[in-house]
Design goal:
With 145 residues, this protein is of the alpha+beta class. It is built from four helices and five strands. It has one domain: Gcn5-related N-acetyltransferase (GNAT) (Aminopeptidase). Helices cover 34% and strands 26% of the residues. Helix 1 crosses helix 2. 23% of the residues are buried.
Amino acid sequence: MNIIKAHIDHLEDLVILFNGYRMFYKQASDEVGARQFLIERFKNQDSIIFMAYVDSKAVGFTQLYPLLSSVSMQPMYLLNDLFTDSNYRGQGIGEALINKAKQLCISENNKGLAIQTAHDNPAKKLYKRLGFEADTDLHFFWKTR
């Protein structure tokens, strides 16, 4: 397995994974929309995406968004997306992607990683095993519609 920081050159591999991720969360397939969304992320440089490859096949990704903590006066990342192709689950790919994100935080002297996920996501067991703790401060959200 090889974990790389994604660039626009990886777009087509990433679109397939990103679309699969969205469908996992019960969204309609939309490769055109996924492509445009990802192009904007690369263009605006407002996220960091790591991808996992096995034998030259893209099999997983994580997307991190930068945040700031006013209380600690430190930067951190929101690990918003984590996805492994269903044919490759159980092989440590998600763990490797998370560990790559942790290494980035350490190298940048960040506060840490926050994870946003569904309450019933089975990956919560992985997060706990990797040292993540439930954070009671992140329970409110306001929607525009």
